[in-house]
Amino acid sequence: MDIHDENSFKAKTYSVVAYKISQLTVELQTLSEESISKINGIGEAIAQKIVEILSTGKMKMLEDLILKTPEGIFEMLKIKGLGPKKISLIWKEMGIENIGELLYACNENRLLLYKGFGKKTKENVIESIEFYLRQQGSFLFAQVEQLATDLEKLLQKMFSSEKIKLTGDVARHTETVDMLEYVIPFSEKIIIKKLEPLDEFEFLENQQEYILYKYNDGIKVKLHPTDQIHFAKKVFETSGSADFVAAFTSDFPRINFKKANNDTDIFKEAAIQYIPAFLRENKSVISIAATNKIPEVIQPDDIKGIIHCHSNWSDGINTIEQLARACIKSGKEYLVISDHSKAANYANGLNEEQIQAQHQLIDELNKKLRPFKIFKSVESDILSDGSLDYSDSVLSTFDLVIASVHSNLKMNEEKAMVRLMKAIENPFTTILGHMTGRLLLSRKGYSVNYKKIIDACAMNNVVIEINAHPRRLDMRWQWIEYVLSKDVLLSIDPDAHSIAEFQNTRYGVLVAQKGMLTAKNNLSSFSLEKFENYLATCRKS
Hints:
Blueprint: H1 8-22, H2 33-37, H3 43-56, H4 60-67, H5 71-76, H6 84-92, H7 99-107, H8 119-134, E1 139-140, H9 141-158, E2 165-167, H10 168-171, E3 176-177, E4 179-184, H11 188-195, E5 201-206, E6 211-215, E7 220-225, H12 231-238, H13 242-251, H14 263-270, H15 284-290, E8 305-309, H16 320-329, E9 334-340, H17 352-369, E10 373-381, H18 392-395, E11 400-404, H19 413-425, E12 431-432, H20 450-460, E13 463-467, H21 480-485, E14 490-493, H22 504-513, H23 528-538
Parallel strand pairs: 4-7, 8-9, 9-10, 10-11, 11-12, 12-13, 13-14
Antiparallel strand pairs: 1-3, 2-4, 5-6, 6-7
Helix pairs in contact: 7-8, 19-20
């Protein structure tokens, strides 16, 4: 009732009655409705509800409330520090319906805009949500990458063997990870005996092919025992998808895996180009490797500029100058400031007067920091009708415009396509931001027709963003091949709200490698000169 902002007096009455019931010395089911109604503080109306529960196991009023409450709201009640009143505000005022969306909003500093959500509260909520999510079993790649590497080193030290190898999801750079996997050149008997005294390894099961543990951080760890002779084969089998491994072994049935010291030797035996683990998803890559056509994929060092960055003018933490100086320190050549537009009032979106003032500041900073350059941009909301959030006269003052959907995300595909297509056709749209609005492990995002969107971007000279925030990674890497076939540029952008989030670009790069993206096809890999030339020629008439 509190979550739905119903009469606070009535809600409190139910709390009082619950307390009264807990103090009874007799079981309720032994009492008649009349006797229950005469208990101090209960009364006839609630006595009827109690009898309803006793006879049916349900309360219709509660069932009705549950039916109109998103499932994720109940999950929020498990987060320490969030009571029903705050959850009501989060849902009704911020439009947030699950803890994943709430965590993302905390990281974007959006809670600070609302009464009762100070910095300390925000930090406590983040800590509580992250603890809760660790217990659920699925993780973002960024959450476990360092742990996976550290655990590999720990196992190597414990078993005095540098041959222990990290495989599975982490080796393939998957967006989300359900477990960490390692190949260990020892018998299962030795492995179990070695780990048995360690409290951080909770034994779960022992199958013929693996031993499963739960590590103290909440993630499952699958260990694949093998011997020295079959080590390379086991690494190969566990670092590729089932489809890839089956297709490879079918195409090259005569390979002698016992001759291989590592998985590189396996591809030499097959006389084809080496296929990195991150490409071992689809069997189609085998024929590409057979013709030596796997390109030199993009690397984190190929990122020359930070595109899509929020400052403290909207919902970022740092000033524009702080962001620029951090870029310079890390060797970047330019920064694209893309604060939120005015429709994003939940994120302190900028009105026209603020834009003018920000542009004046950027001009001053560019004189001060040259040859480094700050570009004037905005992350313009794509409104419900597909138009951008500002008049053409205002949009024309930006060097580039990132168009993104942030509101009314519960669209069917037809509505989403109308909205996105109109935005793509807008002559001021330079980059289409986070195409589907998904949040990994939290929000599926709206359905889209990828081919039609990519084709439209090709027709309208619009760049497609790979939003590198670890919780987004949107557009999906599976469509990179089609994007490249249409000569559409991609842009790996961190969607940073602080200097620390510049590192998001790395996660975008790692997932883009799965689609064989190269630096030449990525806008944020352009040098300053090339980037300026691109912007000068990409404006549509």
